[in-house]
TrEMBL record:
UniProtKB keywords: Membrane, Transmembrane, Transmembrane helix
Keyword Membrane (UniProt): yes
Transmembrane listed as a keyword: yes
This protein's name: DUF1275 domain-containing protein
Species: Vibrio marinisediminis
One Pfam family this sequence matches: DUF1275
Residue ranges of the TM segments: 12-36, 56-77, 89-107, 135-157, 169-190, 196-216
Length: 221
């Protein structure tokens, strides 16, 4: 059992959640008020639109499939779901930045299919990091995070030991996503769809920092 989180996990989880929070805020404010970092609401909307089988049905289905394809990309890159230094997270982050940049180019011209690339980027990120020391790690939506925290609190009230390490990780993710929503809303109010350049830049910076940290860590061995 790990009693203290490695710094790279703490900062990485916070920044990835921050990135997703920014993208989702921009999506809610600008992509026809469509969330793209998670698909629970999208699946519900898809179900309610199936009876009419109109253009919205196919649009929602494409958002769902795009998220799925993004997650499939992560399956190509990572043989194991456990978070571990040395895996190809840098490459995945660069691909995510490319998907978001494609989304920006299309949405800037009012081409709706740009939303599909944004959804794929979030699917890729959400599948990038799945588990760390027994904790399920999701950085693009908060449902699981809040649920797990609630379960942990309930278990503590029942007398079980509280895993502060896991709770700390979840709080890093939650605060990053929340802060990302604040930043995304501020940026969208000023730059509209061009505010996507912020998460694009952040993804590229994270990739470079990860590669540098990986190089330094290996050099110390």
């Amino acid at each position: 059992m790990i009693s203290r989180l490695p710094r790279w996990v703490e900062y990485g989880a916070f920044l990835l959640a921050l990135l997703a929070g920014i993208v989702n805020a921009i999506g809610l404010l600008g992509f026809q008020h469509q969330a793209v970092s998670h698909i629970s609401g999208t699946v519900t909307l898809l179900g309610t639109s199936i009876e009419s089988l109109d253009g919205m049905t196919s649009h929602l289905l494409m958002i769902l499939l795009s998220f799925l394809m993004g997650a499939a990309l992560a399956g190509v890159f990572f043989e194991c779901t456990a978070l571990k230094l040395g895996r190809r997270y840098g490459v995945a982050l660069c691909i995510e930045a490319g998907l978001l940049f494609t989304a920006y180019l299309l949405l800037d011209k009012n081409i709706t299919s740009g939303q599909y690339f944004a959804s794929a980027a979030c699917g890729l990120q959400n599948a990038m990091i799945t588990t760390f020391s027994g904790a399920v790690v999701r950085t693009t939506h908060m449902t699981g995070i809040i649920t797990d925290l609630g379960i942990m609190i309930g278990a503590r009230l029942r007398g079980e030991r509280f895993d502060y390490r896991k709770a700390k990780l979840f709080l890093f993710i939650f605060s990053g996503f929340l802060f990302g929503g604040v930043i995304g809303a501020k940026l969208y109010g000023i730059y509209a769809i061009a505010s996507l350049m912020a998460p694009i830049s952040l993804a590229l910076i994270l990739a470079l920092v990860y590669w540098f940290y990986l190089y330094v860590s290996r050099d110390k061995r």
